[in-house]
């Protein structure tokens, strides 16, 4: 007989945290690229 659990498993929580980390990392890297491009264009 299986019990029906209503919470998240540890694996599900870990996957969500990894996805959030990848999204934040991509956003921060993109912002860095934009800042570098802006600095280069102002430097000319």
TrEMBL record:
Highest taxon of the lineage: Bacteria
SUPFAM superfamilies per the UniProt record, alphabetical: Pili subunits (SSF54523)
InterPro entries named among the record's database cross-references: N_methyl_site, Pilin-like
TM segment ranges: 6-28
Record keywords: Membrane, Transmembrane, Transmembrane helix
One Pfam family of this chain: N_methyl
Name of the molecule in the record: Prepilin-type N-terminal cleavage/methylation domain-containing protein
């Amino acid at each position: 007989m299986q019990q029906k659990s209503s919470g998240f498993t540890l694996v599900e929580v870990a996957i969500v945290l990894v996805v959030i980390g990848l999204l934040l990392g991509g956003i921060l890297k993109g912002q860095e690229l934009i800042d570098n491009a802006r600095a280069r264009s102002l430097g000319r």
